[in-house]
Amino acid sequence: MLMTFFSCQKDFLEVKPNTGILTPTTLNELQGLLENADVLNKSTPALSQMASDDYVFTSYESWQSALTATERNSYIWAKDIFAGANQISDWTFGYKGVFYCNNILEILPRLRDKEFNIRQYKTIDGWAHFMRAYLFYDLVRNFSTVYDSGTASTDMGIPLPLEARVDKIVPRSSVKDTYAQILTDIQYAVPALDIILPVNNNRPSRAAAYALFSRVFLSMREYSKAELYADSALAITKALIDYNGISTTATSPFQINNVETILSTGAILGQYQITYPSSINTQVTVNPELIALYDKNDLRLSVFFRLNTATNTLYVRRGYFLQTTPFTGLATDELYLIKSECLVRRNEVNESLVWLNNLLRKRFSVANFREISGLNQQTALQVILNERRKELVWRTLRWTDLKRLNKEGANITLTRSLNGVTYNLPPNDPRYIFPIPDDEIALSGIPQNQR
Question: From 3.40.50.300, 3.40.50.10070, 2.60.40.10, 1.25.40.390, which CATH number describes the 27-444 domain?
Answer without folding.
Answer: 1.25.40.390
